[in-house]
Amino acid sequence: MTDTSAPVTTPDRDVPAAPLPASRGPRRDTRPGVRIAMYAALALGLLLVAGPFVWMVLGSLKTQAELLQLPPTWWPEQITFGNYERLFERLDFPRFFYNSTVVALAITAGNLVFCSMLGYALAKLRFAGRDKLFLLVLATLMVPQGVTIVPLFILMTNLGLVNTHAGLILPFAAGAFGVFLMRQFMLGIPDELLEAGRVDGASEWYLFWRIAMPLSGPALATLGIFTFMSSWNMFTWPLVAATSERMFTLPVALATFSRGQFSSDYGLLMAGSLVIVAPILVVFLFLQRHFTQGIATTGLKG
User: Fold this and answer.
1) 286 domain-assigned
2) Which of 31, 78, 123, 162 satisfies CB 3.0 to 4.6 Å to 186 for a cystine?
3) CA-closest candidate to residue 109, choices 223, 14, 185, 186
């Protein structure tokens, strides 16, 4: 007889392992003291960054006497718009604003086009001396701008471009920083995408304009903001190259007409500075999403 009392065994089956707990990222320190210290540091940073701007806005609404009194007042004792009235009365504002706009937009457009072209060549084309050329571009970043003022002025004089818009624009139509920024961004464009275009018979010019440039939107926005800000606020070169009042840009005109023989009109300076800053704020607010994306995605690849 068969013994049926023995236990029946079944082959072992694979038992799925218990899932690992999902990673929740870095843990935040929730101790009250640490959070208070963090918020205090952030508040101090905000005060250091925004404090001078707020002081400028409030100072533009004060009288000259209140601006010079000690101890200084934070909020205007008597709000006045006389500084803005004198700003538009003393300055040929439309003319100076036109000069600044033409110079800033032309320099920005030149950097976007020429820096992108050279950045594409240094990132995606292979030719003799490419790496040496890139090192030369980086080396120009170490040259102080003040050193180049005299040679640039002599060059513009020999070309007959002093006291012209072209003389204010051409020396800054392309910059080493823009070349570096665009080259680093375009290194991230897949080579396979460009090779597919070359196989289909596309020229390098077509690949640059129809593939590389549309993919470089964040970097172009970042470069455009930086270039527009620097060219709009440029002071030294327009002061040297603009030899007549009709070619003054806003910063040069403001510095010229706000200074008297023995003192400066600080109210006029603050009102004019606020007017000069306004276009930069508008450009930044309009392109801030692209600016943030460009900073986040532009790597430092070799």
Assistant:
1) yes
2) 123
3) 223
DSSP string covering 237-298, please? HHHHH--SGGG--HHHHHHHHTB-SS-B-HHHHHHHHHHHHHHHHHHHHHHHHHHHHHHHH-
Nearest 5°: phi and psi at 65? -65, -40
Do 182 and 224 contact (CB within 8 A), yes or no? no
The answer to whether residue 10 sits within a structural domain is no
Query: Which phi and psi angles does 259 have, rounded to 5°?
Result: -105, 130
d(CA 184, CA 219): 9
pLDDT of residue 296: 57
pLDDT of residue 300: 41
Rg (CA), the chain: 30
C-beta separation of 153 from 240 below 8 A = yes
| Cβ–Cβ < 8 Å for 172, 108 | no
Q: What is the pLDDT of residue 268?
A: 81
Same domain, 173 and 238: yes
Nearest to 220 by CA among 105, 107, 106, 115: 115
Q: What total number of domains does the chain contain?
A: 2
Token couple for 198: 């070359």
Residues of the chain where predicted confidence (pLDDT) is lower than 50: 1-2, 8, 10, 299-302
For position 117, what pLDDT does the model report?
A: 93
The DSSP call for residue 209 is I
- Prediction pTM value: 0.77
